[in-house]
């Protein structure tokens, strides 16, 4: 499923145990709702893992950060592991300055995130 706004390109890819959302462009107050739609759709598929691949994100404002926080809360409630992958330097700085880097599992590449060990079943 693709996002329709030219300033924020969103695609979702399904792997055996993970849903991956690839984001590129501007994640701001105008575009954060599109990101939310993709997150909700991915979580409806009941994956073990949800990976947000953010290498193409050029700008992320407080609305974008709020969506990341909400995604974490929603994933936690669904017992889905949320991971960030390929976070660009500017967003890494924002996450660090705000203290959010400590609450997200972040990996240098999508492949690194996909290779993380996960218990074979999810506890209820």
TrEMBL record:
Can you name this protein?
Anti-sigma factor antagonist
Query: Entry's CDD domains?
Result: STAS_anti-anti-sigma_factors
Note the superkingdom of the native organism: Bacteria
Q: Coiled-coil regions in this chain?
A: none
Q: Which residue ranges does the record assign to the STAS domain? A: 8-117
What InterPro entries does the database record attribute to this sequence? Anti-sigma_ant, STAS_dom, STAS_dom_sf
Please give the family membership noted in the entry: Belongs to the anti-sigma-factor antagonist family.
